[in-house]
Amino acid sequence: MKKLFFVLIFIGLVFSSFNKNPKSELIGEKLDDQVKEVKAIINKNPKYNKEIAFFIDMSIPSGKNRFFIYDLKNDKIIDEGLVAHGLGSETEIKGILKFSNTNNSLCTSLGKYSIGKYYNGVFGKAYKLHGLDKTNCNAFDRNIVLHKYSSVPYEEQDEFICKSFGCPMVNEKYFERLEKILDNSKTNIILSIYY
Asked: Above 90 in pLDDT, residue 100?
């Protein structure tokens, strides 16, 4: 009976190791690191929201959900959606991106952002982004903003999606959910874009 019990446990362990997705584990590890960094920032400064943060993992293909709304209190993703990256971030190798903080590069910039006030522009309501790192300190001057665009699909797909001029650009339905969170927050929400 004991042998049968141990054999069943061994078989369970073997099968569970086949079900592990190394890519999702890597994404989880990277997200965990980003969450720790954001928590360090918000714990030092009362002007930042301590309950919600936004994360964008640019290593995930653009046709897959890579914009995460994260509950900092309960340490979990509460929503996710598609987000476009900058046209200038494309390289000759499909799926491999480059990043820049240079004006007119049309690239996405990595780093932490403070999401500022909204304004109404070419794409309707958009939120100004203030770069907090050397890698994105020109975001405000580059007019890098969080905005919606009708050509960004709502559902995940196998193909890559449209590109922006460097802005994190999301679907209109997903933007409505972001907008509710941003407009109801009494403090600035941090957005972290990483690769």
From this structure: yes
Report whether 172 contacts 150 (CB < 8 A): yes
The answer to whether residue 95 scores a pLDDT higher than 60 is: yes
Tokens 């994190």: give the residue.
Answer: 168
pLDDT digits 0-9 by tens, 1-53: 444 444 334 444 444 443 444 345 657 899 999 999 999 999 999 999 999 99
The DSSP bridge pattern shows strands 52-57 and 145-148 to be unpaired
Secondary structure of the chain in HEC code, one letter for each residue: CHHHHHHHHHHHHHHHHHHCCHHHHHHHHHHHHHHHHHHHHHHHCCCECCCEEEEEECCCCCCCCCEEEEECCCCEEEEEECEECEHHHECCCCCCECCCCCCCCCCCCCEEEEEEEEEEECCEEEEEEEECCCCCCCCCCCCCEEEECCCCCCCCCCCCCCCECCCCEECHHHHHHHHHHHHHCCCECEEEEEC
Distance of alpha carbon 34 from alpha carbon 11, whole angstroms: 35
CA distances, 50 to each of 111, 187, 190, 192 (Å)? 18, 9, 9, 14
Interatomic CA distance for residues 30 and 54, integer angstroms: 14
Q: Tens digits of per-residue pLDDT, 157-184?
A: 999 999 999 999 999 999 999 999 999 9
What pLDDT is recorded for position 26?
Answer: 54
